[in-house]
Design a protein that fits this description.
Length: 364
Amino acid sequence: MKIKKKIKLKKAKFKFKGIGFVTILILLMDIIVIAGLIVINTNKFKSFWIPTAMTTKSHKYLAYTLYSEDLVWKIMSENYIEKNTEEVNLDDIVIGQVSEKKHYSNKYEKELFTKDEGNDVYKTIRIIEPGYKGWLIGIYDPSDVELAVSSRLGIVGQNVSTLIRNNGGLVGINGGGFEDLDGWGNGSIPYGAIIQDGKLVWNHSGGSGGLIGFTNEHKMWLTDKSPEEAISMGMVDAVDFGPNLIVNGKTAKIHGDGGWGIAPRSVIAQRKDGVVLFLIIEGRLPGYSTGASMNDVIDVLLRYKAYNAANLDGGASSTMSIEGKLWNRPSAGGEYGGRAVSNAWIVTNKQNKPAKAPVKSNYN
């Protein structure tokens, strides 16, 4: 007679003897730190982090927190834009009445010239790309574009919506840069020169990119000439900024990411047919839009056949306003309608345009 043995299998119990929750947490933190150290020491991350931090007004310390001065200098010296010294050929710009086209060279041109119903002045286009979002405005008649300047220049700036409203405008973007100590500037002290209506209304140190403006023939002109000489040659409105990204259809020679990192951008451009382009790239908004490099901006502009283009003040100042409403998502100051700036490029409403208030300034 066989006797069956009952074998009881006891469930194994695993216990972390001596290992508590805090210890496990520390181990996980160690893993995260090690992974972080690996990431920040990759060339790709260094080339992204350092130029992005160094082009901000008040966060350069973020570059030096992680890296030595020698490494920061090395990375910045490998990422730069060669200045294009070629003079803009204004004769290449042939301005005519832009009408509905029947044939388009690409889908982007069709998008630009398919006008919104009831709007013959401008077209608003949404830009969505991997990593960044933005807005592009095409202005069909360049004579509608002018420079608006804070009515209290030297004292306080105004946001783009206010500058548009005070000048009978429809849409606009921020223009040149201004003193912004520790990110708390109020737009009162612009960098470089400002020309408005053919007069030099401001000239201050700090301008470095050259004049970006329009002639009395409404042609966009990028030049290193002095403000006085530019005015004598027909410059009507201009700000001092840069760099120039496209000149006579030729793109800037960019090494690495150009040394400008990934950030919000504001750009003004003109096509050969005179159509003006305002481009805003949103950035520094994790999960929504990181920002764009100069190469990214050039790629967008070339789709819409920009012939001359220049970079304007970016970062938290990058602002677009349409019909009195803040249109983009700035990285700071959105709750106030955007940051106060010293000037803006706007599209005017000729049928409802108030007389300009005199600009009060004491430039030096």
